[in-house]
Amino acid sequence: MTGRDHYVYVLECADGTLYTGYTTDVERRVAEHDAGDGAKYTRGRTPVEVVLTESFDTRAAAMRREHEVKALSRREKERLIRRD
Q1: Strands, E assignment, 45-84
Q2: What is the pLDDT of residues 7-17, one digit of tens each?
Q3: What is the spatial distance between Cα 48 and Cα 56, in angstroms, rounded to a whole number?
Q4: How many other CB atoms are there within 10 angstroms of residue 27's CB atom?
């Protein structure tokens, strides 16, 4: 892969909760979540909607950012989403 092929994404689930994940293909990953094949957390909380994506050059950078975002409070995540 070349360029910014690693993504951190935030989903809003049908119950209003937020889920943060990492992928190399956001569209495919969202389809997996909606089909019930994504993370255990999102099963039963579909449909999901992408509310934020950030792209990175390396998997390591994306994984660091995913960890940072997951550590944010709900209010901080909402601020991050509104920024975009």
Answers
A1: 49-56
A2: 999 999 999 99
A3: 23
A4: 9
**CATH code of the domain made up of 6-83:** 3.40.1440.10
Model pTM above 0.90: yes
- Cβ-count burial of 48 within 10 angstroms (0-12 exposed, 13-18 middle, 19+ buried)? buried
Sign of CA dihedral 38, 66, 24, 60: negative
**Residue 20: other Cβ atoms inside 10 A:** 21
DSSP reduced 3-state for 64: helix
Question: Contact 27/35 with Cβ under 8 angstroms?
Answer: no
Q: Domain map of the chain by residue range?
A: 6-83
